[in-house]
Design goal:
mainly alpha, about 120 residues
């Protein structure tokens, strides 16, 4: 068993499942929790890429207004648009990755529940 499965088994034993709770999780805690565990490195990559692409989009946009040549203006506005699209694609990639990890986590939880039920039935 890997460390995730042992942690999951311990959580199920202690019945510290917070998913079924009635209290909604604040967005601040969701954001902070994305920088912990398996998603930490991906969160850092996404935030760095978003800051870089955002900065490049701003530089391209400002350059558009200071340029006098129409060809340069067209190039800079297209670059700004592409950097904004890259920010959206980066967020989409992270969202898909987070959903994949969440689905895998739920499948593991279901497997652990099935194993517990099988063990309880075999003991009876």
């Amino acid at each position: 068993m890997d460390t995730f499965e042992t942690k999951l088994k311990e959580m199920l034993r202690n019945n510290t499942n917070k998913i079924d709770s009635e209290i909604p999780i604040p967005m601040r805690e969701v954001l902070i929790s994305s920088f912990k565990g398996e998603m930490k490195k991906f969160s850092l990559i996404v935030w760095v890429l978003m800051l870089v692409f955002g900065g490049l989009a701003v530089v391209s946009g400002v350059g558009f207004f200071y340029s006098d040549d129409p060809k340069t203006q067209l190039l800079l506005i297209v670059m700004a648009h592409m950097f904004i699209l890259l920010i959206g694609l980066t967020k989409l990639w992270y969202w898909m990755l987070a959903n994949r990890y969440g689905t895998n986590r739920e499948i593991k939880r279901l497997e652990m529940r099935i194993a517990e039920l099988t063990e309880k039935l075999s003991n009876q």
